[in-house]
Amino acid sequence: MSGGPIEIVEREFGDLALNMGPQHPSTHGVLRLVLHLSGETVIKAVPVIGYLHRGVEKLSEHLAYDQLAPVYERDDYLAPTANSNAYVLAVERLGAIAVPKRAQWLRAFVSEWQRVSSHLVWLGTLGLDLGGALGGGTTLYMYCFREREKILDFLEELTGTRYHTNFNLVGGVRYDLEPAMAAKSEALAAGIEAALPELWSMSGGNPIFQERTRGVGVISKDLALGVGITGPTLRGSGIAYDVRRSAPYDAYGELEFAVVTRTAGDAEARFQVRMDEIAVSLKLVTQIAAGLPPGPVFTRKPLKNPKTTKLPKGEVYAAVESPRGELGFHIVSDGTAKPYRLKINAPSFKNLQVVQHVLPGGLVADVVAILGSLDPVLGDVDR
Amino acid sequence: MPAPEIVQALATRFSATPTSLGVELPAASMLDAFRALRDVYGYRYYVQGTGLERETTYEVVHAVRSLDVNDTLFVTVAVPKQAPEVDSIAFIYAGAEWQEREIWDLFGVSFKGHPDPRRILMPDEYPGHPLRKSFAMDTPWGYRPATAVVPEPGS
Predict the structure, then answer these.
(1) What is residue B103's predicted lDDT score, i.e. its pLDDT?
(2) B141 CB-side CA count, 13 A
(3) C-beta separation of A130 from A212 below 8 A
(4) Nearest by CB to A317, which of B21, B121, B135?
(5) Which region holds residue A18: left if phi is over 0, alpha if psi is between -120 and 50, else beta?
(6) pTM (2 d.p.)
(7) Closest chain A C-alpha to B155 CA, distance in angstroms
(8) Domain positions in chain A
(9) Does residue B132 lie in a domain region?
């Protein structure tokens, strides 16, 4: 250095591309977001997905119909039963396979329990996302996981598996609900319902939480329809579409439940919809356990060789309301024992697509709040 | 089941032919038909888009829904295998953007006028389209990311 005057160079950053993920703790899986920033404002967001792509749809064309249900339970790994439920519905519709009434009610029963457990994971991880605002966030996380643990224990007792219950079969379900288990379910539902106000006071009732979610990530009705977002995210934008009500499957045609909606369309509205849905599902499981019709849970004639059992030619679409929204299976059959083409209409894929429309204009700090409020599961996105 | 009056209207206006879950449209009239479906008939909700391989054609199937009458319509457009290209409807239904990228990625059908025609699930440099019937299950992975090879320490 010579003794001349020191020149201070002010660098002009036009816009900065910030790489968020794929191993970012707030992205709920391996999602990569390329955020183009001007200062702290997002001007463009490019989601990059595919890190978890496993080729499930290709695999489906090489396995027999009866081998496939457990494969899909790995897709949306927070609510496995919803996946296999949609699949067996599609196959039953295609092959005109009868399902006993009791089995239909039990499918709804396990689906609703998993909806509660999935929403509890969502609430806990949303607390982690908004971390600093909620005293570290781990408190809410731990409280949610404490409640969820009880559900997983209950499902383990019912099905032998905590998680991938493998509950649904083509033509029925694998396990029956004994009266003792029904009583346990009722007690468990009452216990979790009693814990809900506490969870709410740590999240929705917290002024900092409200501050961080109110008016953030607003999805208008038109955008919601055009992008085809689904589930609680759609209902948070004021559209009362719920597959359970609009295209009833399983036992939902005979059950009484409310379709929760909010009109604001922001992260807080989506939070409120899911919170209320937990209460609705807890009422549903009790209602189902009380009104369970008698009879067998599986009546299909045993197959001599599942690998060569053919289904008729045709095309079918069946959907269920998974915790993330409409989860559909579109199967084209050419009359053989394997699907000719199988498409999974994944709710997380459609919900995640909205981030490129919603994030621009917001702050970097809001990105995690918005992502958390969409509740994507990357196994479901990438399939 | 698609609403019969919609199928009838699409048949007379856009020479559509009925299928089991909806209609099949000729490629020439598909853009007008989708605009009419969204703006005139109230099918404003985009459900899903998927591809399908037939003997001599690929098929692109878009599903749209009217929430007013609660009806879902599956609209098929056939694409010849020699020149697999079809109009994009991402400007009509924003939700079609990713679904069309997925069809391009997995089936190799390209979309005219797509705002962001890149692969979506497979790596950008990946050769081949996995959901084609000619793509065998035992196809070697064969793809290596374009990064520098770091020598092992001590070698």
Answers:
(1) 93
(2) 7
(3) yes
(4) B21
(5) beta
(6) 0.87
(7) 30
(8) 55-382
(9) no
Q: Are residues A226 and B72, on separate chains, in Cβ contact within 8 Å?
A: no
Could you give the CA distance from residue A112 to residue A197 in angstroms, rounded to a whole number? 20
Domain that holds residue B39: 4-88
d(CA A190, CA A285): 11
ipTM reported for the complex, 2 dp: 0.84
Supply A245's token pair: 């009500």
* Nearest chain B alpha carbon to A52: B121
CA distance B28 to chain A (A): 23
Mean pLDDT of A46-64: 88
Per the domain annotation, does B61 fall within a domain?
yes
Total domains in the fold of chain B: 1
Q: Does A51 touch chain B (CB under 8 A)?
A: no
Residue B7 touches partner A, C-beta closer than 8 Å? no
Q: Which of B50, B53, B132 to mutate to test the interface with A (most CBs of A within 10 A)?
A: B50
CATH of the domain at B57: 3.30.460.80
Residue A334: closest C-alpha in chain B:
B54
Touching B: A residues 354-383, CB under 8 Å = 357, 382-383
Q: How close, in Å, is residue A131 to chain B by CA atoms?
A: 31
Compute the distance between CA of residue B142 and CA of residue B144 in angstroms, rounded to an integer.
7
pLDDT 10s digits, B100-155: 999 999 998 999 889 888 888 888 778 888 888 888 888 777 666 666 566 666 65
Give the pLDDT mean for A264-291.
Answer: 91
State which residue of chain B sits closest to A378, comparing Cα positions.
B121
Per the CB < 8 Å rule, is B67 touching A332? no
Model confidence pLDDT, tens digit, residues A155-169: 999 888 888 888 888
Considering only CB atoms, B67 lies closest to which of A241, A316, A383, namely: A241
Distances (CA, A) of B76 to A282, A312, A366, B58: 41, 21, 39, 10
Asked if the model's pLDDT at residue A1 lies above 60, the reply is no
List the single residue in B52, B94, B122 with the smallest CB-CB distance to A50.
B122
Q: Is A45 helix (H, G, I), strand (E, B) or coil?
A: strand
Tell me if B81 is assigned to some domain: yes
Cross-chain residue pair A330–B50, CB shorter than 8 Å: yes
Do residues B33 and B46 touch, judged by C-beta distance below 8 A? no
Model confidence pLDDT, tens digit, residues A302-355: 777 777 788 888 899 999 999 998 999 999 998 888 899 999 999 999 998 899
Is-contact B112 B136, C-beta < 8 A? no
- A133 pLDDT above the threshold of 60: no
Is the CB of B94 less than 8 angstroms away from the CB of A227?
A: yes
Whether B123 maps to a domain, the answer reads no
Domain formed by A55-382, architecture:
Orthogonal Bundle (1.10)
**What is the tens place of the pLDDT at every residue in A213-258?**
888 889 988 889 888 899 899 999 988 899 988 888 888 988 888 8
- Of A21-25, A226-230, A237-241, B94-98, the least confident: A21-25
B126 at interface of A, judged by CB pairs closer than 8 A: no
